[in-house]
C-alpha cells in the first residue's frame, strides 16, 4: 500500500496494483480497475516513485543464510 493525500488533506492508503490510469488535469486523478476515481495532491511522478519503492521492498532478495556449524 502507498500513502496518498486527498485534496482535503486526509491521508489514505491505496493498493497500487489497482491503478489503471494516472491523469494530470491539472489535479492528479487516479482511475482504478474497480472504476473508482481518486483526486490526490501527489504528482504522477511521486505516485510512480512510491510504487517503485514499494515493489523494491516487497521483492527485495535477501541473501541466503548459511549455518556456521
Characterization of this structure:
The chain has 69 residues and is an alpha+beta fold. It has one domain (2-58). The chain is 22% helix and 33% strand. The chain contains one helix and five strands. It has one helix spanning 44-58, and strands at residues 2-5, 11-14, 19-24, 28-32, 37-40. It has a three-stranded antiparallel beta sheet, with no helix packed on it. Strands 1-2 form a two-stranded antiparallel ribbon. Strand 1 and strand 2 form a beta hairpin. The longest helix is centred in the C-terminal third of the chain and has 15 residues, at 44-58. The N and C termini lie far apart (40 Å). The model has no long low-confidence stretch (mean pLDDT 94).
Keywords:
three-stranded antiparallel beta sheet, 1 helix, two-stranded antiparallel ribbon, single chain, 22% helix, 69 residues
Structural topology:
Layout: E1 2-5, E2 11-14, E3 19-24, E4 28-32, E5 37-40, H1 44-58
Antiparallel strand pairs: 1-2, 3-4, 4-5
Shape: elongated
DSSP helix count? 1
Number of domains: 1
> Over the alpha carbons, how many angstroms does the gyration radius reach?
16 Å
What is the element string, with H for helices and E for strands? EEEEEH
Please outline the major beta sheet: 3 strands, antiparallel
Strand order of the largest sheet: 3-4-5
Cα separation of the termini: 40 Å
Percent in helix: 10-25%
Strand content: 25-35%
- Give a count of the beta strands, DSSP E runs of length 2 or more: 5
Mean residue pLDDT? 94
* Uncertain regions spanning at least 5 consecutive residues: none
